[in-house]
Amino acid sequence: MKYHGRVVAALAAGVMLMYACGNTTTDTGGQPVSGGTLNIAMKDDFKTLDPAVAYDTDSWSVERAIYNGLLDYVGFTTQLGPDIAESMPTISPDGKTYTFKLKHGVKFSNGREVTADDFKYSFERMLNPKTQGPMTGGPFWGSVSGTADFYSGKATGISGIKVVDPYTLEIDLDSPNQSFLNVLAMPFGFVIPKEAVAAAGSDYAHHPVGTGPFVLDKWTPGQLLVLKKNPSYFGKAAYLNEVDFQIGVDEQVGFLRMQQGQADLVQPDVNMPSAQYIQLSADPTFKSRIVKTPNVDIWYLGMNVNMKPFDNKLVRQAFNMVVNKANQIKVLNGRGVINNGIQAPPMPGFVPNYNPLGLDANGQNITMAKSLLTQAGYGPGHPFPAQDLVYPKTNADSDNLAAAIQQDFQAVGITINLKGLSFPAFLDVTGKPNTTALSYDGWIQDFPDPSDFIDPILTCTAANVTANGGNVSFYCNKQLDTIDNQARGDTNSADRLKLYQQIQDIVASQDFPWVPMYSTLETSVSATRVHGYQLHPVWPLVLTSIWVSGGK
Amino acid sequence: MTRYIIRRLGWMVLVLFGVAAVTFVIAFLVPGDPARLYAGSNASPASVAIIHHQLGLDRPVYVQFADYIWRVLHLDFGFSYRYSAPVLPAILQRFPATAELAIAGVFVEVVVGLPIGILAATRPGSIWDRITMIFTFVTLAAPPFWLGLIFLYVFGALVPIFPLGGYGDGAPQYLFLPALTLGLGGAGYYARLLRAVLLDILPKDYIRTARAKGVTGRTVMFQHALPNALTVLITQLGMDLGYFLAGVVVIETVFAWPGIGKQAVDAIFNLDIPLVMGTVLFGALLIVTANVAVDIAYTFIDPRVRY
User: Fold this and answer.
1) A:401-440 residues touching chain B, CB 8 A cutoff
2) Per 3-state DSSP, what percentage of chain B is helix, strand, and coil (rounded to 5)?
3) Residue A82: which H helix or E strand, with range?
4) How many other CB atoms are found less than 10 A from the CB of residue B85?
5) Distance (Å, whole) CA B102 – CA B182
6) What is the ipTM of this complex?
7) What is the three-class DSSP state of A324?
8) Which pLDDT belongs to residue A21?
9) Is B263's Cβ below 8 Å from some Cβ in A?
């Protein structure tokens, strides 16, 4: 998710060594005990608890506790497994039909058993334009047969979603899509009961009913959201009896509350602010409580290939050699790793130490950069035009990161003017064609599949828009799209990952629409009475592994 | 008086319409697509386009404005994108907390500011005058967010006698620090204002006459000087109350106080146009009402004022 700081757990020992990071789990504290209340300080109120609508990590933190879907990630891994589905689906030989068998006896918190009809209802409601959800018309569910007719109103239901019997659901795709199971495991695939929506009307967002380990007990907007353990949960029961989200608590105050024993976690779905990270890293009580794990993200400079001077590939290549990436990580207090590619370290198929341009340890080659700029026609008689670097002012580090870039380019005689914008304005100006030449961008996963780092941000489809685009470079290479389409349907995992590595080579060593810079390290901290707190590679917050000592 | 009130109410409607029009135009001039923020930053352009249409944002601005005004006249303030809830109930649900804080803040302004102002005015040039004026200088200069964080750190963490923010169902211990932070800046201003007004009044003939007749200093101050200074103070008090009621953004943010100020900031950052419009109109209504109330109060305070 773009700019929603989110956590990703380490998957491989190599990744862990690269980061030289600390704990990924808080102390296990001996034998888990049931009971008690976990207090979580949150800066903002929750937008909605309607899984058809929410597309932010705050909301997903709660939704993950209330709902279930057909599939989920096994433990704290990126491997998919069955959730309400009895087993992984059977897939037809052509890769286009998925058949799910449902577990018997899974009940909503209102007491009614979940059936295949509920999934059909939930998916159709989620994709119905009237619901105003973000999946409608988008690519994730676009391969399901019959969605186009459903969106246009020609059909009242989606023909590709079929209820075979109360415990069997079939989903037909127009073309094979290897990431579709990841899509199903997103919160948009959670099941909800029709009668709860009918009862709550337009206010279902505040009256959620699901099948998960917790149920919503109370939500006072702007103050408090309380989850209680669901006694009829079909899976392993949570240890906690209650989770209280204290709403509207500024992060500085949240960490004070933690130090005073009034909060157990502070905004766990986003990275710790630098100031608190430095402070708590030096605190004897809390330094061992800090958990770290690599994020599935990539931060880069986007260069609009349709705008001067970045329509010249030599210029783009030169820019790839100027940024001191090690300095960027210093600004983040060491919470990151240099990334010269387009995939994030924990992603399947990630190539460690990828360095196609032979850059030095800082990610630079200034001599080569100057030579390339000369080849591009820039020099003493024709100085490089000053450029605006557009960046979002999303946190306290934003200005410092951009200023470091400005200094890097001064070293090669290029003037960079910093243009920090509010997040809405940033999205607006970078999403329109021929509007922004150079921008500081980031991409954080929707799900841990390489396709998510290509389809929305590097394809011709993503470039061919008039507004709200994710391909900020407006880069289009039909060869890349062809390989991407091939990879989407390739059922052989190893071959598929090789195709994505080919795409990485095209972007990072041939066309240069980006200056890839780094991937971040997620950090979070918990109070001393919290045990079993672990960062998940996909979910912003998992409550079921946590227990507390010392009662409330 | 009745004609005056009716005339003021008429102006009030015009002011509110003007506020609505200006806010609406500004909301559309600010770069950014509310549908993109509503959908989520990762949402595809096609999905955003559908939501854009569903929210009615693809209509001409003047059509949207006319539609908005028509609905407001029917007390329908729209649906918040940010909170997935109707706007008016969302504002009304949070307004009591803001009102509680606003009244407490004004109370602190008066209780702290007035005695200091009187003390300084009755002993001009003395050490008390200097000390109180330094105090007012500090409270006026200290940014509320900084002062709030210091109070929280000192009285919530170092010497934990107050909670570290929050509402606590309006319990007094939760209210104390935010009200103090809110009121101290105003108290400094009131003290300086009152000192200046009193220094202007105290040398006047009627005060000298009272003193010559043997009236005690306390009686001179509270029965002769202070009532004449009240007109100025009431004006400021009414303005402050209206301003505070419209939402005290910084204080609510620092102290996790669930009022309409924090809600308004969230709405602005999320381009939640219906909630921004609703909050601005609600705030404008409170400020205009407070002004009218102050004007009417003059007639009770100052017998010379008649409408």
Assistant:
1) 421-425, 427-429, 431
2) 80, 0, 20
3) strand A80-82
4) 19
5) 8
6) 0.83
7) coil
8) 41
9) yes
Q: Residues for chain A: how many in total? A: 552
Say if B47 is an interface residue toward chain A (CB within 8 Å): yes
Cβ proximity of A137 and B45 under 8 Å: no
Token digits for A3? 């700019």
CA A101 to chain centre: 29
3-state secondary structure B257-277: CCCHHHHHHHHHHCCCHHHHH
* C-beta atoms of B258 and A248 within 8 A: yes
Q: Residue A16: what pLDDT?
A: 32
If you measure CA to CA, which chain B residue comes closest to A201? B85
pTM: 0.87
A478-487, A541-550, B171-180, B210-219: least confidently modelled range: B210-219
- Which residues are A303's β-sheet partners? A438
The interface residues of chain B toward chain A in range 155-214, judged by CB-CB distance below 8 A, are: 156-157, 160, 163-167
Residue A69's nearest CA partner among A130, A119, A20, A134 is A119
A3 contacts B41? CB cut-off 8 A: yes
Tell me the C-alpha distance between B214 and B203, whole Å.
16
Whether chain A has a CB inside 8 Å of the CB on B82: the answer is yes
In the block, residue with structure tokens 């390989």: A483
Tokens of A361: 């340890």
A304 with A474: CB under 8 angstroms?
A: yes
Contact status, residue A135 vs residue B47, Cβ threshold 8 Å: yes
Q: What is the pLDDT of residues A1-45, one digit of tens each?
A: 444 433 322 223 233 333 334 456 666 567 889 999 999 999 988
Q: Among A468, A531, A497, A526, which Cα is nearest to A255's? A: A526
- How far apart CA B107 and CA A336 sit, in angstroms, is 50
Give chain B's end-to-end CA distance (angstroms, integer).
5
B251: which 2 tokens?
Answer: 């204080």
| Best B87, B162, B164, B270 residue to mutate vs chain A (most A CBs within 10 Å) | B164
- Contact across the interface for A2 and B90, Cβ inside 8 Å: no
Rounded (to 5) percent helix, strand, coil in chain A = 30, 20, 50
The total number of residues shown for chain B amounts to 307
Mean pLDDT of B98-111: 91
- The CA–CA distances, whole Å, from A68 to A114, A118, A552 equal 11, 12, 27
Token pair, residue B167, equals 């509402």
Q: How far apart are CA A332 and CA A340, in angstroms?
A: 18
Chain B residues in contact with A425 by the CB 8 A cut-off are 30-32
B146/A contact by beta carbon, under 8 A: no
End-to-end CA distance of chain A: 34
pLDDT averaged per 10 residues in sequence order, chain A, 552 residues: 36 32 59 93 92 92 97 92 97 94 97 97 95 90 94 94 97 93 96 96 92 96 94 95 94 91 92 88 91 92 96 97 96 94 89 94 95 93 94 89 96 94 88 94 92 93 85 96 92 89 96 97 93 92 92 54
User: How wide is the angle at C-alpha A28 spanned by C-alphas A22 and A34, nearest 5°?
Assistant: 145
Return the DSSP state at A360.
-
Min Cα separation B62/chain A (Å): 22
pLDDT digits (tens, 9 = 90+) for A416-463: 999 999 888 898 899 999 999 999 999 999 999 999 999 999 999 899
How close A239 comes to chain B (CA, Å)? 27
Across the interface, do B262 and A248 touch by the CB < 8 Å criterion?
A: yes
What average pLDDT does this structure show over B112-125?
Answer: 87
Q: Residue A321 in contact with residue A449, Cβ under 8 Å?
A: no
Place of tokens 């380990």: A213
Cβ count within 10 A of residue A104: 12
Question: Which residue of B lies nearest to A140 if distances are taken between CA atoms?
Answer: B44
